[in-house]
Every structure is written in structure tokens, then in C-alpha cells.
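Chapter summary example.
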Amino acid sequence: MSVERKYISKSVEETQQIAFNFVKEHPELKVYALHGNLGAGKTALTAGIAAALDIHQPIKSPTFTIINEYAGGGLPLYHIDLYRLNSPDEALMLGFEDYLESNGVTVVEWPERASELFPEDTVHITLTPLDDPNHREIRLFFYS
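The structure predicted for these 144 residues follows.
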């Protein structure tokens, strides 16, 4: 069954807490596709996912490195940014499917660059800035 949840975050910390709580509530979900414009809060949300996995190092946007890998007390986190890619074939050349099928948690920014490669149980999260520059609408779509 498809489920949608909607939140309003008023700060970076709230965005991180929403992600933290969701991951703790749904530890079986391993692939997250983050949708939103530049500055929408995708990396902040990823930091909340990392905290839920017991990863306590700074989370940085992988815009230029494309893939950042983090290890912690729980599962590894693979933070992937597809912004600079032009096609799903380029994602495949990076070993993208290996990350999606790994034993870790994979978070992907700009997933529309390779949308057909994602598994059916991917959690899709849309972050939309609101009128106040610190506020975000966060919508999560997933199968339960």
C-alpha cells in the first residue's frame, strides 16, 4: 500500500529530526530518492538519516565527488548526487546499481537523472522551500 506523509520543518534541526525519526520507524527501507531544487535541504535531511544510522561525522554534499560513503555504528550510508550526470547509462558506469542493492542505506539526490533504475520500494522525499527561508514542506512517499 502506498503511503504519503507530509511535514512542515521550520529549521535544519527539524528537517534532520524528521529524517531520523522516519529511519528509526522504518529500518527496513534502504533506498531514499531526494527531490528538490538546490538549497531545498536534501543534504540536511541526509544528515538526519546518517544520525539514525549512528554516523556522527559531518555529511557533505556529494555534488562534485558524486558519491560519499560513510561508516558508523550501524549500516553504511552511500550518499549519491546525480546532478552532474546526463543519463542513466552514466549512473550505471559508476556502479549505481551496486549501491542500490548493497547492505547499506543509499540516499540519492537528483534521482530523476536515473529514475528507471530505482527499486519499487524506494522512499521518495520531496523538499519544497516555503515563504519563510527556513521553512520546508517535506513529503514522503513509500510502500508499507
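To summarize the output: The helical segments are 12-25, 42-52, 88-93, 96-100.
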